[in-house]
Amino acid sequence: KHIAIFASGSGSNAQKLMEHFKRNNEAEISLVLTNNPEAFVLQRADSFEIPTHIFDKHEFYETDEIIDLLKNLDIDLIVLAGFLWLIPEKLINEYPNKIINIHPSLLPAYGGKGMYGDKVHKAVMLAGEKEGGITIHYVNNKFDEGEHIYQAKYRIEETDTLEMIKFKGQQLEHLHFPRIVENIIKKLKK
Ligand code: GRF
């Protein structure tokens, strides 16, 4: 089976997926897509010899080019890994329950438009939360509101810095995301 990853930034989660599926027969990462020509994820993809595609707002929201590309590559599952744009309705309809996202909080807390990256961890820290976590969920037409697939938690100590909170979340993401993606792909019928 074939997976496409959408990412806008560093792509450390994308990298974990690339590593995982390099040594796994269930699926391959066939394409990495980004809206950001500067995204480090592009270099990560290159080092795994995975094709990449850079697109702009017009292409994403006003043409069928991306859907055509995904269909041509026979993509079965779309994985968002730090992708910051809302997925157009049309793409959701083409891939019902086949688009998943990872978010660095225990949704529904600390989710929604504008809640991404460090902003999430800062908000969690400022609120004095005793625990943080990650959520892997299906994607619908609202930011961070699709059905949950998996959540994992970590403890926050009073002395934890922003960096430490971020690190704890990232460790959980890297540990669980590849495994959960594999479970989902196994259940998909061809
Ligand atoms: C992750 O924290 C993920 O939960 C969120 O964006 C971040 C992406 O980090 N959606 P990276 O680019 O995978 O390092």
Which ligands accompany this protein?
5-O-phosphono-beta-D-ribofuranosylamine
Distinct helical segment count: 7
User: Can you tell me the overall shape?
Assistant: globular
The helicity comes to 25-40%
Unreliable runs, pLDDT <50, ≥5 residues?
none
The multimeric state of the shown protein is single chain
Our measurement of the CA-to-CA distance between the termini, rounded to an integer number of angstroms, reads 8 Å
Query: What is the strand tally?
Result: 7
Note the main sheet: 7 strands, mixed
Name of the CATH homologous superfamily: Formyl transferase, N-terminal domain
CATH topology: Rossmann fold
Q: Order of SSEs, N→C?
A: EHEHEHHEHEHEEH
CATH class categorisation: Alpha Beta
CATH architecture: 3-Layer(aba) Sandwich
Strand order of the largest sheet: 3-2-1-4-5-6-7
Structural class: alpha/beta
- Beta-strand portion reads 15-25%
Counted up, domains total 1
Arithmetic mean pLDDT: 96
What is the radius of gyration computed over CA atoms, rounded to a whole number of angstroms?
16 Å
Pfam family, one: Formyl_trans_N
Pathway: Purine metabolism; IMP biosynthesis via de novo pathway; N(2)-formyl-N(1)-(5-phospho-D-ribosyl)glycinamide from N(1)-(5-phospho-D-ribosyl)glycinamide (10-formyl THF route): step 1/1
InterPro entries: Formyl_transf_N, Formyl_transf_N_sf, GART
Function: Catalyzes the transfer of a formyl group from 10-formyltetrahydrofolate to 5-phospho-ribosyl-glycinamide (GAR), producing 5-phospho-ribosyl-N-formylglycinamide (FGAR) and tetrahydrofolate.
